[in-house]
Amino acid sequence: MRVLVVEDDEGIAQGLQVNLQRLGWAVDVVPGVAGGWAALCAEPFDLVLLDLGLADGDGTQLLGRLRAGTAKPLPDRQTPVLIMTARDQVASRIAGLDLGADDYVTKPFDIDELAARMRALRRRAMGRAQSLLSHGDLLIDPAARTVARAGLLVELSAREFAILLALLEVCPRVLSRPQIEAHLYNWDQALESNAIEVHVHHLRKKLGEDVIRTLRGVGYFVPAQSMESAT
Ligand code: CA
N or C: which end of the chain has fewer CB within 10 A? Predict the structure, then answer.
């Protein structure tokens, strides 16, 4: 999952980046409304963590502009937004929710709770109600970040897990290599040109050659079979 953090408090922003990247997500940080808007127009983010009191304005300005969906170039107006507010900012929290924010946390927040809320928003955005994903004999737990094949746990690296999850979430659609890269890497992360190929190669060795298919010249996909959520 590619996450944009809009936060002007450097300590909070860095803490979020470090902790959320540990969960295997790609996290970019911008300090204000202007930077946030530029980032949303430039990259396909899966979720926005939005502080409200920003140096160059109020986070609700960014939210309103995103949800209005009238600007060009057009970021995805449906992008889930989770607002971060001080405990006493009740009025701005209400304003944010009414403007189209999907959830909120009050500072100081617990990082594990925040991560769980983010996973819930992602599930909802992908139209899933349940937390586990199953596909054939694969069972994926995004919260625990585990994969089992035919009941046996398979060890995946954080990147391998992220690629598998990204492909399963859009199954049977094809993701191009640039789309997978945009999903996995933030601006600061150098990327070897064949990195995705190498990860897919490892995934096939661990999970079986048939799990991820290549559409030559286009990208990768997980073929449709029994793509359904399990309890
Ligand atoms: Ca602030």
Answer: C
